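Example 516.
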Amino acid sequence: MSSPSATPTLIAPSAASHDAEGRARTYEVRTFGCQMNVHDSERLSGSLESAGYVRADAGEEADVVVINTCAVRDNAAGKLYGTLGHLKSRKDKHEGMQIAVGGCLAQMDKDVVQQKAPWVDVVFGTHNMGSLPSLLERARHNGEAELEILESLEIFPSTLPTKRDSVYSGWVSISVGCNNTCTFCIVPSLRGKEKDRRPGDILNEIRLLVDDGAMEVTLLGQNVNSYGVEFGDRQAFGKLLRAAGEIDGLERIRFTSPHPAAFTDDVIDAMAETDAVMPQLHMPLQSGSDRILKAMRRSYRSERFLGILDRVRAKMPDAAISTDIIVGFPGETDEDFEDTMRVVEQARFASAFTFQYSIREGTPAATMADQVPKEVVQERYERLIALQERISLEENQKQVGREVQVLVSTGEGKKDAETHRLTGRAEDNRLVHFEVPEGSETPRPGDVVWVVVTHAAPFHLLADSPDGAPLRIRRTRSGDAWDRAQAESCAIPASAGDSGAPRAVSLGLPTLRVGV
Ligand code: SF4
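Predicted structure in complex with iron/sulfur cluster:
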């Protein structure tokens, strides 16, 4: 099979992006699923804006609604068809409205989407996100639905224009697809074999993001530490971390997700020796039972897993380690589950994403005997959650009294307005809600504050100022970029003194920066 193209993909202006009166049509992208999907949605937005569409304001009914689906999470199909049913009544009243469905579930269901919801205008898969504008145009022109699902990747999605959601932090894909065959997972059949981007392309994309104001990147792949398998360098991921750490202005590097089987000590060394790599690791356990790990076709065992955590903590004592765990995999006995509880107790995770196993059609586990009854799964799940909440709280309580550096974010503190706090992420990725004392300067999203933790809960930390002293703030380039983005969205010229140009839809490679 030939390699996907890494050449920047230009999206031509589309006639369908404007209505008969010449008004730009509006779009909205709704995302279900993981970070990979969130980042893919940034590319869908970028492609649509390059074609001439404009993002609908919050609360406004868009002319084009794109649903980027997930086939991994619970009840994905129920959520999709429920949303489509709701959209049908909106479409009946909104002349010219179009609905597009893309992503993993579309790739899996193919024409089933149109059979079940014939009012959908476009269905596209995971391998052809860049086709969305032309499919919308064809559907509009021909007055009939368009379906395009490719079986393999033709271009790296990273070559598409990208409309980033955040100015201070960005996702950067290093690979797509996965060569593993975990029996519960639909990803390999939907995203294909692992394809690695060239290190130079990845580093250029990071530099471009930093030039635009970002100080944090998260490297994304289904299995980041197998990066390099395609070009035969087993240590490529550690090298990539070190090379990214050299980029001026890049202060925080994170990555997700690694796989315990291929997590080698050179990666731990690269993490510990690269200042910008944050003391944080998401390491999916899935099960603490070696028998179940084997049935899941996960080739590590619990002892190796715990050994990785020990070695990470030996080099980075303050690393916050999180995980994913599936409860009730087919054949899981009480004893297997107790093994999971034991490993969780020993691992001292800062947090865990816990899932109840449910059948994913098309995966080997879907047809395994011994599916565990729902009530048994529920009971185990509740016990696991209670255990992890206790550990998360205990680990968070160790933070009380510590000074942490928080990168101020936006949209993460749902109760900020009522509690008069702001929110951000500490270096170890813990969520911190902090008080802005009366009379203190207010930091912008993208600025950094130093705060002392005063209270711990299982899922967040609080940092209040007992003596009302003003916040210690470092105003950053990312905060400046936030200011510029705000000014642009209000059509106010960006403040003088900032060297940054208007933020445009960016391509994944600097050679073709648009509007800069
Ligand atoms: S490593 Fe396993 S769980 Fe992760 S994407 Fe690959 S097959 Fe799925």
